[in-house]
Amino acid sequence: MNHRRNLQIVYAAIALAFLPVLRGLLHATDATVPFAIDWDKAAESAVDLSSFLDAPAGKDGFIRVEKDHLVRPDGKRFRIWGVNLTGPNCFPAKEDAPLIAADLARYGVNCVRFHHMDSRRAGFFDPARDDTRRLDPEKLDRLDFFVAELKKRGIYTNLNLNVSRQYKKGDGVRDYHLLGYGKGATYFNERLIELQHEYARQLLTHRNPYTGSDYCNEPAVLCVEMVNENSLVEAWISGRLAGKDDPKGDASWGPLPVSYANELTEQYNAWLAKNIAPDVLARIRESAGVKEGQPVPRLNGRAEMAKASRERFFAEARFIMEKEQLFFDGMKKLLREELGVKSLLVGSSDHNDSISGYPHILANMTFDIIDGHGYWEHPRTRPSFWLKNTAMVNDPFDCTVIQFARTPVVGRPFTISEVNHPFPNEYACEGIPILTAYTLFHDWDGIYWFTFGAPREAARTQQGLATFDFSNDPVKLSQLAVCGLMFHRQDLAAAKRMIVRAYTPDDLIESIRMPQAERPFFTKGFSRTTPLQYAVRLSFGGQSTLPFPEHTSGPVIRADSGQIAWYNDEQKKGLVTVDSAKTQVLVGFVKHRRISVTHLAAEVDNDFCALVLTSLDGKPIAQSSQLVLSAGAKVANSGMTWSDDRHTLPEWGKWPPIIEPVTGAVILRGLEGAKSVTVQPLAAEGRPLGETRAAGRSGANWRIPVGNPPTVWYAVRVDR
What we know:
By secondary structure, the chain is α/β, with parallel strands linked by helices. Helices cover 28% and strands 21% of the residues. The strands form seven sheets. The chain has a nine-stranded antiparallel sheet with strand order 16-17-18-19-21-22-30-26-27, covered by helices on one side. Strands 4-5-6-9-10-11-12-13 form an eight-stranded parallel beta barrel, surrounded by six helices. It is globular, with a radius of gyration of 27 Å.
C-alpha cells in the first residue's frame, strides 16, 4: 500500500510539473487548423495589386522630395508600401528571384529595403579573404539580377550600407574581435569611417549588368541609408560609450571596447581645449573632480548626466552631437560629390523611444528623408526568449502610432523602415491594419514591414514561422494585400489639423536628460493622446502649437478626420475601428464590444480578431461589385506550446503554420441595390477554396457565415 501511495505521489508531481506545458499545448492547438501557402499557385490569387505599380521602376527618372513628401518625376505623390529583406534573403537564387519579385508585386510592394547585406550570415564579403574589403562576386551577381527583376515590375530598391558588419584581422581594425557591430565607434574612429567609405564606393559605383546602370545612377534605387539603428547620442545616453572588453558581448548593443572609449575621451578633451573658454573649462574640471592637466572624464548614462553641472553636460552634449554631424556630413559629401549618387539619402532611424531622439533627428536633417523604427513588444532574446504578449488595442498611449509620431519633422518626408508585431504575439493580427490607417491619417510617406523572409525556400524546407519573417504567416500576408489596397488608394483622409512641437537648441539638449517617464515625446505638457487625434510634427526652427491639446480621458479617442476611433476601457477590451467609403475595419475585442461601422458589423466567436473589408474594384463599398474581406485571428506553428504565463514557448513548433479561424458571422450593410451577395473562401495564397456560397439576407443587411471552411480571407461578389 505504501509503495502504491508513493507512486501516486510521484505521478501527481509529474502531472503538476507538466501542467503548464499541457495547458499551453491545448490552448495553442484548440480550434486551429493547418493553413499553409502554396507558393506554386500564388499567381492564381483573386487579389492582385501589381496594377498599382508603375513599371519599370524609375522609368521617368528619380523619386524626389517636394516640400514635405516624396513625389515622382512628374510631381505626383509617391508612397512606399515596402518590405525588408535581410541577410541572405537579399541574394535569392536566380531561379527564385523572378518569382519573388512577382509575389511582391502581387501584394502591392513597391520598394524593398535590402538590410543586413553586410552581416556575416549574408556572406556578401568574399569568404576566401581574411578581411571584409571585397564583395563576393556570386552574391553581387545575385543582387544585380534580383534588383533588375524588381525593377521590371515597378519595385524600387533601398540600399543599406553599414548595418551589422563585423571585421576580420585583415581589415586593420583595432580590437576587431571585441568590436561587434561597432555601433557608436563608426561615427568617430578614422579606420572604421575609411572602411565605410570604401564599401560605399564598391557598391554604389558597381555597374549592374542586368540594368546597364551603376547603382549611383540607377533611378530604380529610391534611396541609400548610411547606418542602421546607430546613433552616437543614443549610445551616450544609454551608457554604451564606457569601455568594456567582452569578446562574447552583445554584437549589436554592447559597450565600446576600452580602447575605443579611451579614443573618444581623447577626442573629447582635444575638443574641449579648442572650443571651450579657459574659465568655463576650469569650472568643468572642478565639477568633474579633476585637476589641470588631467583628462576630463566623459559622462556615462542618465544618472551621471542628471547630476552633472549644466556647463559640463552641455559641453559634452555639443561634442557628441558634433561628432555625429561630422560623420553624416562626410557621408553626404562622399555620396553626392564624389560618387554622384542621385537617389535620395537617409542617415539612420529614430529607433529608441525610451530616450530623447531629437539630437539624432536633427543630425538626420542632413539628408532627404526622416525615418523611424519601432515594434510592438519586441521580444527579449537574452538570456532566453521572453515576450510580453499583450494586445496593443489595450494600450493606446504606448502603441506603435505613438512611438512613431514623435519623429516626423515639418518640411521633410517621413518613412517607417522597420515595424512588426513580432511572432508569436497572439494579438499580432492588429498590427498591420492599425498602423496602415494611422499612417494615412498622419500623411506619412511610407512603411517597410519587417521582414518578408524567404517564403518559397521556407515552404520547400518546411521551416516554421520565425520571430520577424512573416512571409508564410497567412494572416499578415492577407492583410498585406487588403491594407495595401487601402494604402495605395489612400482610402482615409489626412488629419484636418497639425500640432507642432518646436525645440530651441537648449530645449533639444535638455531633453537628453529628462527622466524616462517622459517618453516618448520628452516634451512637457504634450499628451500621448494627441497623435491619435491630430497630425503631429516637430520643428527645430518654427513655433509650437500652444497650448497643446489636452489629454483625452474618455472611453473613445477619435481622429479629427472622423474615420478612426480607438475604444479604450478599464476592462482591457480595446477596439479600433476604421469607417471610410472604401475600407471598413474592426480590430480588437470585437466579440465583447459589439461596435459596428457603416458597412461592417460582426457576430464572431473569437475573443480577439481583425476584420478588414475593402473594395476590390475601387468603388465605394456601397456601390462596389467586388469586395475582399480579411478575417484574421491567432497564428502559430504546428505543435507550438506556451508556458502557463504565456510569455515563453517551451516548444517553438514546426511547419505548417496553423490558424485560429474567425468563426461566426460578418454582416455587410448599406450595399445599394444589391440583389444577391455571394462569398468565395480563399486559400492562403488567394485562390478559390471550396464552394461559393450565398449570403443570407435580412432586410438591407447581408449575413456572411465565416470559418467554414477555415480561412483568413474571402472574395465577396455583389450582384445588382
